[in-house]
Each structure stands twice: as structure tokens, then as C-alpha cells.
Amino acid sequence: MEDYGRIIIHLEELIQASGLSKNKVSQRAEMQRTQLNNYCKNEVARVDLAVLARLCHVLGVGIDELLEYRPPETESADAPNTHT
């Protein structure tokens, strides 16, 4: 399968910076604590846009602070190009 990069959720760092506890964030964002932990550990297969909106609201951040796209690792310059 081709590597398209990945999405990183910076929730753990944002919660720490906010000074709120994870319990408080999960309550205010109306989500289960286990769901919050999965988002913190980047163990979410399908993100819920409503959850992302609530997290942004509770933490006072934009979506660009919460999510980051990391492109795939670049191939070395002398490696043959196998993509057509």
C-alpha cells in the first residue's frame, strides 16, 4: 500500500498547555474519557468532525493547531522511481 503520510493529533500537548485536566476536557467536549485517550494517543481510525469542533472550542484553538499533516518519508535522490 502506498504511503500517503499521516495526520497527527496534537491533543495531549494542547490539553497540557490549557491547564485543564483530561477529565474536565472530556466533560466539556461531551466525550467519553476512553475516546479522549484514543485521540490523545493518535489511535483513531475515523475522526468525528463534531468531536474535533468541540475539542477546538473547549481548548480555544484552531483546527490547524489540533491537526497536522505529515507527508510520507521522501525517497533518497538516487533511488529508482517506481511510481508511474
TrEMBL record:
What positions does the domain HTH cro/C1-type occupy?
11-66
Question: Which InterPro entries does the entry link to?
Answer: Cro/C1-type_HTH, Lambda_DNA-bd_dom_sf
CDD domains named in the record: HTH_XRE (cd00093)
- Kindly list the GO molecular function terms attached to this UniProt entry: DNA binding
Q: Which Pfam families match?
A: HTH_26
Coiled-coil annotation reads none
Protein name, please? Helix-turn-helix transcriptional regulator
